[in-house]
Design a protein that fits this description.
There is one protein chain. With 407 residues, this protein is mainly β. The chain has one domain: Outer membrane protein transport protein (OMPP1/FadL/TodX) (Porin, Beta Barrel), CATH 2.40.160. The chain contains 2 helices and 21 strands. The protein is elongated.
Length: 407
């Protein structure tokens, strides 16, 4: 019974429905349209996220605000009963905001600020689904703040670094396999606030007039939960077994190393390729310490056994005219979730992401950028801990829009 509180997925898994593991790549509309590639191609202020070293090669001061409403639906078919469970999740709301500034054109320093949501969404399953004792709802909100400085060493090389502060909260709900006199199952709801620190560094090299190289490293961020609250709705006879109280935990958000290449074929065509190496192996075990333990509620150590993985992102930008740009991209991500560890929160699988985008310059100062993202994934597994066995099928579509002000 104590295993009802396996909270390892609380902060990390919400966005797995539309990304590699639970890594989200909705941090820049131009880059989103190009498969999420942007490490070696400084297109706009979103370079604060993709490669701080390339910020020094931007041509203008600017402010960039973007929003990517995300619509995901998952269907689960139980292998034993063939029953069907579906999600009725609300729209996800990833956003990003960036600002970059330098004193004048001769300044070697560019200063930037990024505010973005690499983790944050809601997954909610319909009432009474077969996996309700594993999960009924998971809502995650997180915001990363990244002040950044970028320095142009010379006409070919730029270096940048940013400090990262992350803050967020979570709400996890699931049913408990105990019933009252009316046959209603018990329910657990857990809330927590978390915070963590990290950094983002990058090197940008303009190797030739046509070829750019980029390398960046985003550090692991350990999200610490000091005092989460646990609330249980159970029959009065079991109330002492499930006392309301607090818990603490620490959850790793993985390090990401990226190698980027960009090639400008001519004035109209630009191509970009990013290769991400993601340190998911840090997420091997999650431990939770409850302030008040009982025979039914004990501290837990739950194996996750994630593995380090790669993601490959490729895209192109084509300048249709002075005012219009068109983009298209493709990404392939290898799942870090090994067989035996798939959960309703992380029905992850190897996947292909399809993207496209448009950009429109509205005069000298304003620009609009739009993107569209689609992915489909399917994963069959039996969880070694909960024995939940079946097939998860997920479809995600995410249109995005950004407005940029240049000055």
């Amino acid at each position: 019974m104590h295993k009802l509180l396996l909270l390892g997925t609380v902060f990390l898994v919400t966005n797995s429905l539309f990304s590699q593991g639970f890594q989200v790549n909705f941090q820049g509309q131009k880059q989103q349209g190009m498969g999420g590639a942007g490490n070696a191609l400084p297109l706009d202020a979103a370079s604060v996220f993709f490669n701080p070293g390339s910020v020094a090669f931007l041509k203008e001061n600017s402010v960039n605000i973007a929003f990517t409403p995300t619509f995901a639906n998952t269907l689960f078919e139980d292998a034993n009963t063939t029953s069907i469970g579906r999600t009725n999740s609300p729209m996800g709301t990833p956003f990003s905001a960036y600002a970059v500034y330098r004193k004048n054109e001769n300044s070697k320093f560019f200063y930037g600020l990024g505010i973005y949501t690499p983790f944050g969404s809601t997954i909610q399953y319909e009432d009474g689904w077969t996996g309700r004792f594993a999960l009924t709802k998971l809502q995650l909100k997180s915001i990363f703040f990244q002040p950044t400085i970028s320095y142009k060493l010379n006409d070919k090389i730029g270096f940048g670094a940013g400090f990262v502060y992350s803050t967020g909260n979570v709400n996890l709900q699931k049913d408990i396999p105990v019933q009252d006199a009316n046959g209603t199952y018990g329910h657990a709801e857990l809330n927590g606030k978390a915070s963590g620190f990290g950094f983002n560094v990058g090197l940008f090299v303009q190797a030739t007039e046509k070829l750019n190289l980029g390398v960046s490293y985003r550090s692991q961020v350990n999200m610490a939960v000091a005092e989460g609250t646990a609330t249980f709705t159970v029959p009065s006879s079991l109330a002492t077994n499930f006392p309301n109280g607090t818990f603490s935990s620490a959850l790793p958000l993985p390090q990401v190393a990226t190698l980027g290449l960009a090639y400008k074929l001519n004035e109209k065509w630009a191509f970009a390729l990013d290769v991400n190496y993601v340190g998911w192996k840090a997420y091997d075990t999650l431990s939770f310490d409850y302030a008040q333990n009982t025979t039914s509620l004990v501290d837990t150590k739950s194996a996750r056994n994630y593995k380090n993985t790669f993601a490959f992102r490729f895209g192109t930008n084509y300048s249709i005219s002075t005012n219009w740009d068109a983009r298209i991209g493709l990404a392939y991500g290898i799942t870090p979730v090994q067989s035996g560890y798939v959960t309703p929160e992380t029905p992850d699988a190897n996947r292909v992401n399809y993207t496209a985008g448009l950009g429109y310059k509205m005069g000298e100062h304003f620009q609009l950028d739009a993107s569209i993202f689609f992915t489909h994934l399917k994963r069959t597994d039996t969880n070694l801990e909960t024995n939940l066995s079946g097939t998860f099928t997920t479809n995600v579509i995410a249109p995005g829009l950004a407005i940029i002000y240049k000055f």
